[in-house]
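Homework help board

Subject: predicted structure for assignment chain

Our instructor gave us this sequence and asked us to write out the predicted structure in token form, then describe one feature. I got the tokens but I'm not sure how to describe them. Can anyone check?
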Amino acid sequence: MPNLSPKQLEILAFIQQFLTAQGLPPTRGEIAAGMGLRNRQGIDQHLRALASKGAIELTPGISRGIKLRNPMPITATRKTQSVAQAGLPLLGRIAAGSPILAESNIEERIRLEADLFRPRADFLLRVRGDSMKDADILDHDLLAVHQTAEARDGQIVIARIGDEATVKYYRRTGDRVRLEPANAAYHPIDIDLRKQEFTIEGLAVGVIRTGLSRTR
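My token output:
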């Protein structure tokens, strides 16, 4: 790999650390916040330089479209193991400007095995509203979510559009994404990836309505 500048090495290290902690790559905003930088254009320049030097791959139009070319093996630490044993984190919201599993987003933990779902669940999200009721996802349900930045057409995704998060069916054609509700009372959301910031936070892999044992 060609020589990297000290700042490029710092950003590369941050991306690796974020991947280890969160299981998916950071957005440019999360890199800027994590590095204490205000200028996101500067982040874009560093990312393009890292891509040109073979350190990463960039996917245009996807805010988490960063892939390490030679990622280091990720081993679970005692801390991450103890968190997993404590149960799945329950999120009541997806706050803008912070990693999705930041402690400030977690309401509590639910005693539930992640491997009950396929693919395995990484967190639970409290559903708000009835826009997906015809997909049997109702207001106040707990949605089991597999954390990933990728999705196929027709899958139900948890997506962030700018500062807003939503649960919808995912469709993509070129640089355009359509998020479709499962309720005729709501309109689809059309997104131009060239103009709007769009992030897939995960896939819906299950719905929970029964009372569950909880831990603090």
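Reply (TA_rk): Your tokens look well-formed. For the description, you could write something like this. The first strand starts at residue 56 and ends at 58. That's the kind of observation they're looking for.
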